[in-house]
Each structure stands twice: as structure tokens, then as C-alpha cells.
Amino acid sequence: MEAFRETELCFPQLLNASCVKPQRPHFEVLLTYVLALSLSLLTAFLNLLVIISISHFKQLHTPTNFLLLSLAVSDFFVGFLLFGQILVTDGCWLLGDHMCIMYQYLDYVITSTSVGNMVLISVDRYVAICDPLHYPIKVTQIRVKICVSLCWICSVIFQSLILKDVLKQPGRYNSCIGECIIVNNYAAGLAEVIFSFILPITVIIFLYMRVFTVAVSQARAMRSHVTTVTQRSTKVTAKKSELKAARTLGVVVVVFLMCLCPFYCVALTGQDNLMDASSVAFVTILYYFNACLNPLIYTLFYPWFRKSIKLILALRILQPDSCETNLL
């Protein structure tokens, strides 16, 4: 009888059909709730500043910035997905099977879209640094917008195919009411690993290693005041602004990999079954925390972003012709 009194159910009225709430210290639950809520609001707010900045100010309508805009949109939605983590702070999912699968589906779509955005950013920097002469011709606003749209569309289609079984029958893998889990079959899991992690990460690392090599050689050339360019017909030295952008976006990519890889490594090896709740929570929070870091990186490295933030917070963007403001 004593054990029965100590057992808490997610849905007490359902008795044996309900999941049992995990026994966690009240302080740990409260701390998790506060951290998740704070991170959710901060992530949404900071990325909203990026979205408004690039969308409003015409001077920022460049191909590279449109890629950052797409990344900010996906990171903005990550802020809302963190509310799902708040809902399961006490170990119970209270919104039903259909909301569970929609939450998981959006999580998968946004994650794969973020990875796709990182690949596009890497390609953009590769062309800008390694082939600067043809960059304005190859990378145009129209082409970037098409690539970004395809990135989102392909993510939706790919995840719909991966999760088609659970989308047809939500809650099929739940063992009790109050649980929210998804189990992919072997083929779907393998496709997810290859196309959402291994292949994109390989492309990103390869392209940025190439960018790093070229950027270092060009930086040395500029420091030594080299004015003669060899093989003038095929090589043109990238502008200093492009090198700086490559460095900034390189930081974004490295931070992205540092936050994403632990989560995927745990998921791939199945070690989440062997880890305690605190370790799993740390890996998950690190995964979501990346969405909050990108605007902070822009603040450190981009003067135009700092200027735009001041204008937005001062509500000066509401003034006529504010979109024509010089930020560079």
C-alpha cells in the first residue's frame, strides 16, 4: 500500500492504462522547467531579431544573408519546439498521440532543414573564396531563394517518407497513455542517418577544409603585400570582406557541429538507454542550444547586426524609409 501511494500516474483516472511519472527531485524538475523556458524565449527572440533585420533592411538583401535568414527561421521554430521539452518536464506527455507525432515530425523537419541550410552556407562560402570571379554570376538572389525553398520542401518530403508509418498510426509505439516516442524501422533509420547526418556533415567538412586552405593562402598573400596574381585567367583573390564572412560563418558551422554531433552520436549508438537522465538532458539541451548561439555569433562578428538591433529595439524601423538605412 505504501508503494502504491508513492506511485504517481500521468492520468490517475485511467489507472492501469496510464504511464507512471518518473521519480525526480522537485528541484531538478523546477530547474529543468526554468532553463527550458528561458532558452525557448531567448532563442525565439534573438532569431526574430535576425529575421526582422534581414527582411526589413534592403541593404542586407544579399545571397549570403538570405541563407542566414533561412537558418534563423528554422532556429526560431526550434525555440517553440523547446516548449515540448517543457511539457514533458515531469515525464508525461499530456497532449495526446496526434500532437505527439506532429511535435516529433516538426522536430525532424526543422533539424534536417537546419543541416541543409548549413550545407548551402558552406557551398556559398566555397564559391565566394575559391571562385570569387564567378561568384556574382553563380550565386544570385534568385538561385539562393530557389535553393532555400527546395531545402525546406525536400526536408518536408523526406521526413514524411521516413515517418509515414507513425504518421498513419500515431501512438503505435507508445506502451501507455502519457508517452510520446517514435521508433523507425531499420531502412528508415539508415536513410535518416545517411541523408540527415553523415552525407551533409561530410560535405560541410570537406568544403570548409577547402575554404580554410584557400583563405589561409590568400591571407598570407595579403600580409606579404603580394600584388602579382599567378594564373590570372583562372584565379582571383577573394575580397577581404569575403574572407571575414568565411571566418564568421566558419564559426557558425563549427559550433553547429559541436552541438549536433553529440546528440546524433548518442542516438546512433543507442547509448541513450545506458545514460542517466541528466546526461540525456545535457545532450538534448546542447542540441537545442545551438539555435540560440547563432544570433550571438552574429552580434560578435557582424557590426550591421548590432546596428540593426539598436534600430529595431528603438522602434525606428517603423519610420518611413527606414528600410533604406545604411548599416554597412
Automatic annotation (TrEMBL):
<comment type="similarity">
    <text>Belongs to the G-protein coupled receptor 1 family.</text>
</comment>
<keyword id="KW-0812">Transmembrane</keyword>
<feature type="transmembrane region" description="Helical">
    <location>
        <begin position="108"/>
        <end position="130"/>
    </location>
</feature>
<dbReference type="InterPro" id="IPR050569">
    <property type="entry name" value="TAAR"/>
</dbReference>
<dbReference type="GO" id="GO:0005886">
    <property type="term" value="C:plasma membrane"/>
</dbReference>
<dbReference type="Pfam" id="PF00001">
    <property type="entry name" value="7tm_1"/>
</dbReference>
<feature type="transmembrane region" description="Helical">
    <location>
        <begin position="249"/>
        <end position="269"/>
    </location>
</feature>
<dbReference type="InterPro" id="IPR017452">
    <property type="entry name" value="GPCR_Rhodpsn_7TM"/>
</dbReference>
<dbReference type="GO" id="GO:0001594">
    <property type="term" value="F:trace-amine receptor activity"/>
</dbReference>
<protein>
    <recommendedName>
        <fullName>G-protein coupled receptors family 1 profile domain-containing protein</fullName>
    </recommendedName>
</protein>
<keyword id="KW-0472">Membrane</keyword>
<keyword id="KW-0807">Transducer</keyword>
<keyword id="KW-1003">Cell membrane</keyword>
<dbReference type="InterPro" id="IPR000276">
    <property type="entry name" value="GPCR_Rhodpsn"/>
</dbReference>
<feature type="domain" description="G-protein coupled receptors family 1 profile">
    <location>
        <begin position="46"/>
        <end position="298"/>
    </location>
</feature>
<keyword id="KW-0297">G-protein coupled receptor</keyword>
<feature type="transmembrane region" description="Helical">
    <location>
        <begin position="142"/>
        <end position="162"/>
    </location>
</feature>
<feature type="transmembrane region" description="Helical">
    <location>
        <begin position="193"/>
        <end position="216"/>
    </location>
</feature>
<feature type="transmembrane region" description="Helical">
    <location>
        <begin position="66"/>
        <end position="88"/>
    </location>
</feature>
<keyword id="KW-1133">Transmembrane helix</keyword>
<feature type="transmembrane region" description="Helical">
    <location>
        <begin position="281"/>
        <end position="305"/>
    </location>
</feature>
<feature type="transmembrane region" description="Helical">
    <location>
        <begin position="30"/>
        <end position="54"/>
    </location>
</feature>
<keyword id="KW-0675">Receptor</keyword>
